[in-house]
Amino acid sequence: MKSWFVVRSKTGAESRVEWHLNNQGFDVYLPQYQKEIRHARKTQIVLRPVFPGYLFVSLDVEQQRWRAINGTMGVIGLVQFGERPSAVSDDVVNILRSKEVGGLVNIAPNGLKKGDIVRLREGAFADHNALLEELSDAKRVILLLDLMGRKVRVSASMETLAKVS
Fold first, then answer.
1. CATH number at residue 123
2. Which end of the chain is least crowded, N or C, by CB within 10 Å?
């Protein structure tokens, strides 16, 4: 019976490991999210793994040659306790997949995503509605707030927001 297992990869090699394992016939899941990077007046959108250095592989340890995974380029090894790899609950992968939008995991709490209308619950702009413009890794967001007929960019904490239905 197939189960999900965790593969530890070298830093930054997750996509390459996914490719190699797929070529070997393994069912691989690499949850990723979109991140906007700004550097020297340049903005770039990149894909980042939700769990840097880790990905999931579905296999039947009784039927498949799982030891071949440890010899794959970019792989450090399967996460195991003792002689055999340790399975993770199917719910872990199912929950991650349920949070996907367009193949990418929405890492924002409360299901918030870019383009949502949100209400600020506290702070100087409490009870104002705003457009969620950008999500950040540090649990911060950039909002477009309509003040006196102008759109103003405001930074806020994720915890202070509520989605407007």
1. 2.30.30.30
2. C
